[in-house]
Amino acid sequence: MRECIAIVGDRFTLEWYFDMRGYSQPLDYFSQTTELEQDKIIALFKYMADHGKIFNKTKFVNEGDGIYAFKAGQNRYLCFFFLGGKIILTNAFTKKAQKLPAREKEKAIAAFKSYKKRVEEGLYYE
After folding, report:
1. pTM greater than 0.90 (yes/no)
2. Cross-strand pairs, 30
3. CATH code at 85?
4. For the chain, what is the HEC assignment?
5. Domain range for residue 91?
6. pLDDT, tens only, 47-91
7. Residue 55 CA to chain centroid, in angstroms?
8. Can you say how many angstroms the Cα of residue 115 is from the centroid of all Cα atoms in its chain?
């Protein structure tokens, strides 16, 4: 496996998370969105990568347990911060309810645990 970079900025590098098989659900989701939707989320990613913070809670929010969400229209991209100035994009979905679905947050937490373990074991980046 290798890095699957979404954006490199002055403060952070955003990466698409990939599982043990090399599949990246958030990248797959992104590739199926419209060009306009892609432009909106890339603008948010770029702003975070360059500035290190998004103050607008309608665009970026702490969901608890170390999980954060980029919000562009109905699209949500969950992520976590990691050592070395990395933000790992774990999963993405279309918002259908007011609250974050517990299942989506659980996926993000599981991805964080998998990522951390695989990095510590030297298995994530080869």
Report:
1. yes
2. none
3. 3.30.2310.20
4. CCCCEEEECCCCEEEECCCCCCCCHHHHHHHCCCHHHHHHHHHHHHHHHHHCCCCCCCCEEEEECCEEEEEECCEEEEEEEECCCEEEEEEEEECCCCCCCHHHHHHHHHHHHHHHHHHHCCCCCC
5. 5-120
6. 999 999 999 999 999 999 999 999 999 999 999 999 999 999 999
7. 17
8. 12
